[in-house]
Amino acid sequence: MGIMYHYPQYYDIAFSFRNIPAETNTIETLIQAHSQIPVRHMLELACGNAPYIAEFNKRGYQYTGLDISGNMLDFTREKVRKLGLNNVNFLQGNMVDFLLPEPVDFACLLLGSMYIDSPADFVCHLDAVSAALKPGGLYLLEWCVEFEPVEDLEDSWQMEQDGIRIDVHYAAKQLNRLDQTYRETILLTVDDHGTPLELREEAVKLAVYPQEFLLRIAAHPCFEFVGWWNDWDLSAPLTGDEQGINRPIIVVRRS
């Protein structure tokens, strides 16, 4: 069994269900409504295969991607070369204590990619983002706050592209209630034109819950809460009465 992040071409297909143009429209609507500065330079944390990069580039944004995986960054640099994109930069590093050469106008952390396993690291992460973001700029987090208890969660889906079929199984299992930690497991079962392969990735992550998140933001000297919405839908602000919450987005602003 292989390690998922060592095969970024399959990861790319497995998570290709996103509507990138529509979600970029939502990002731009949020910027227009809530950013206090013009946005020219975007930072994506845990960028991985950088699925938004071509759309951001087409709309004229400079892009910086940060990821801890060298394999992912090599794959994405090659994608950028093939697409002929300009104004793109990548950095390899940890989202807890990274440093940028210069601050950006907007930052995002997408699809639950907050790989943090302690409250102390979460505070350090906020400190690092505040240092990387210009005052007045927005920080958007997708699915990084748990609106339902993380106990034993499972989900599965299938994606197919260019003759490659991938069955994806996601599981989250609670590890410690006091620490609010859980083990996230992603299993990809690949059929690449008849050649089978299984890829697995596991991580211990911190479950951050809504009121805890609000308290952390209120206590931080450099952030203020803007809002949160269900499933990238700005007509659906979260109230707590939803029947189901999927891919919630949260926006805070650098003060």
From TrEMBL:
<dbReference type="Pfam" id="PF13649">
    <property type="entry name" value="Methyltransf_25"/>
</dbReference>
<protein>
    <recommendedName>
        <fullName>Methyltransferase domain-containing protein</fullName>
    </recommendedName>
</protein>
<feature type="domain" description="Methyltransferase">
    <location>
        <begin position="43"/>
        <end position="137"/>
    </location>
</feature>
<dbReference type="InterPro" id="IPR029063">
    <property type="entry name" value="SAM-dependent_MTases_sf"/>
</dbReference>
<dbReference type="InterPro" id="IPR041698">
    <property type="entry name" value="Methyltransf_25"/>
</dbReference>
